[in-house]
Design a protein that fits this description.
Elements (H helix, E strand, L loop, with lengths): L2 H17 L12 H14 L7 E2 L2 E2 L6 H13 L3 H27 L2 H12 L2 H7 L5 H20 L4 H19 L2 H16 L9 H25 L1 H17 L11 H9 L4 H13 L7 H18 L13 H17 L5 H27 L5 H4 L3 H22 L3 H8 L1 H12 L1 H8 L2 H10 L6 E4 L3 H8 L3 E4 L14 E2 L2 H8 L5 E5 L1 H11 L3 E9 L2 E8 L2
Parallel strand pairs: 3-4, 3-6, 4-5
Antiparallel strand pairs: 1-2, 6-8, 7-8
Helix pairs in contact: 1-4, 1-5, 2-3, 2-23, 3-4, 4-5, 4-7, 5-15, 7-8, 7-9, 8-9, 8-10, 9-14, 13-15, 14-15, 16-18, 18-19, 18-20, 22-23
Length: 551
């Protein structure tokens, strides 16, 4: 068994620990995990593989691939939270191997390739998206596959044909995962790269034609079927609302700033943030000088993804996630070269000392943030022995990291640097029963359904509507007073005024609901003269309530 094979096996094992192990402990969370999983479940109920269905009606917020993944996982593992999360986690592991292979092509150094892959798997957002049911991991890894295939074909001329075909196949899967950007992003990266290299003729070949045929065969049938079957409904929701409107209108208004992506993306690569900043600065300084092809490719990768999303008003850190493999490769390249240098640069050494200080502050800052910011989450205010043990372990890691840096044992220090995030993950896993009521509607829904005869729809705060539907399989009514409709259409009754609430309550003798605190206050004021309003149980931040007429 060669060194490369051994390294890949080790990476798979480590990636399983970082990205998949314990994924079934926590129930599916509000609002997105239950959205995707409930859609797949309703597809099963309606016996369709092609039309995404939610609340009993077709919904086109995302393409079909993630629902196929969940359905296949359900058939293997059963209807569990682990099964729902298996697809993104499995593809995330493949993304680690793809990053290793790409770095191997670029650096011709298997040890450096291993290190950059390790950096990616231990980055905060990569771990988070691998362990949750979102499309972003799937979409980004398929873009990674496409760029790996291209670079393989570009650097290994004998593999040009296969590389180009795999580029289009991977792009097609990205299009089925999140939409047209699945081809626009990777194609723009390789076109600019080839233009700068004065080698545009590389893509003008019969292999590109074969690749386009494969792309059309994979990516287009589902879109054509939805167009033929649903026409304007599909176009309005998928292309207009979920693509065009997100460009011109912010779904999350506080995020719509010029600095949102630079700050949050760098924060999301924690614990490697400081080194990523330095690596990016070094690359930009070298613009205009003779830059290696691979570094140019990485820089264009990051720049293209950033510019694609920067000018859209709807911003989330996960939107720029496709450039995270490139950031990891840049960061690993910088760190690895410094470690092997006879004398490390002053900037590198100072950055490492700062990182040691950050590691000391990190476990102290968490409870402070819990007290000052997360007042509605008592678990952070009343920690148990496990929390104290975890924080003590984080302090010990900070001490060891500083000792390794001062003794110039940099490689040991950097492998140790990945562990704080892992400690937090496993601590959260052990505390899942305490965390769950604050992130999932499972406990509130189970209490309501197990103790009361619920007839008719359940009144839900807007944020809980998807989760309550998932955990009760009952019709729901969303309430937000005053509030805005869902960004994407939901075919459910929406109560956003006091009069709409009164009208709804008047139609049924007894109503049950799962509400957040401010909605409880609204209902108390609305019902005090004509209804009996009871809080039956509080589960985390969710209040199970009953509203019945006064005698």
């Amino acid at each position: 068994m060669g060194n490369k094979t051994k390294q890949i096996i080790i990476l798979i094992f480590l990636a399983y620990i970082f990205l998949m192990f314990g994924n079934g402990l926590l129930s599916l969370t509000n609002p997105d995990e239950v959205f995707y999983t409930q859609t797949a479940r309703e597809m099963i109920q309606h016996k369709t593989w092609m039309t995404p269905i939610l609340f009993g009606q077709p919904q086109f917020e995302k393409p079909i691939f993630i629902y196929w993944l969940i359905r296949v996982s359900f058939s293997i593992f059963g209807n569990t939270s682990f099964a729902a999360r298996f697809g993104p986690a499995f593809i995330a592991i493949l993304g680690i191997i793809a990053t290793y292979l790409l770095a191997l092509l670029g650096f011709k150094d298997n040890k450096k390739a291993f290190f950059v892959s390790f950096i990616l798997m231990s980055s905060g957002l990569y771990i988070g998206l691998a362990r949750t049911v979102f499309t972003d991991m799937i979409f980004s890894v398929f873009i990674l596959f496409a760029l790996l295939a291209f670079y393989w074909g570009y650097t290994c001329k004998a593999r040009k044909g296969l590389g180009l075909i795999l580029f289009f196949v991977s792009s097609a899967l990205a299009v089925l995962s999140k939409g047209p950007l699945g081809i626009l992003i990777p194609f723009s990266i390789i076109l600019v790269f080839l233009f700068i290299k004065k080698d545009l003729k590389f893509v003008i070949s019969k292999y590109s034609l074969l690749g386009l045929i494969a792309f059309a065969a994979i990516a287009l049938p589902w879109y054509i079927l939805m167009e033929v079957k649903y026409g304007s409904v599909f176009n309005r929701e998928f292309f207009y609302n979920d693509h065009f409107v997100r460009i011109i209108r912010a779904e999350h208004r506080d995020n719509d700033t010029w600095y949102f992506y630079p700050l949050t993306a760098l924060g999301a690569v924690f614990p490697w943030t400081i080194y990523t900043c330095i690596a990016l600065v070094c690359l930009f300084i070298n613009i205009g000088r003779r830059m290696k092809d691979f570094n140019l490719f990485l820089l264009l990768w990051v720049s293209s993804v950033f510019l694609t999303f920067q000018f859209a008003h709807s911003k989330l850190t996960s939107y720029v996630f496709p450039f995270f493999p490139a950031l990891a490769i840049m960061t690993g390249d910088y760190i690895y070269d410094q470690v092997l240098a006879k004398k490390q640069s002053r900037v590198f050494f100072v950055a490492s000392i700062i990182m040691a200080v950050v590691l000391f502050i990190f476990p102290i800052a968490i409870p402070i943030a819990g007290i000052s910011i997360l007042k509605d989450y008592p678990i952070f205010i009343e920690p148990g022995p496990l929390v104290y043990f975890s924080f003590s372990l984080l302090i010990l890691m900070a001490v060891l990291f500083l000792v390794f840096i001062l003794r110039r044992k940099f490689m040991k220090a950097f492998y140790l640097l990945s562990l704080p995030v892992l400690v937090l993950i496993f601590s959260a896993g052990f505390m899942h029963e305490k965390i769950e009521p604050y992130v999932s509607s499972r406990d509130a829904a189970n209490y309501l359904m197990n103790n009361y005869k619920v007839e008719g729809p359940i009144i839900c705060s807007k944020f809980y509507a998807r989760g309550v539907r998932f955990y009760t399989d009952k019709e729901v009514v969303a309430v937000d007073i005053p509030g805005s409709q869902f960004f994407s259409p939901h075919p459910i009754l929406f109560l956003d005024t006091h009069q709409k609430v009164r009208d709804f309550l008047s139609k049924r003798p007894i109503n049950y609901g799962i509400l957040k605190k401010n909605n409880v206050r609204d209902f108390e004021g609305l019902t005090e003269k004509h209804y009996k309003f009871e809080v039956l149980k509080q589960c985390g931040n969710e209040y199970v309530v009953r509203i019945s007429p006064l005698p």
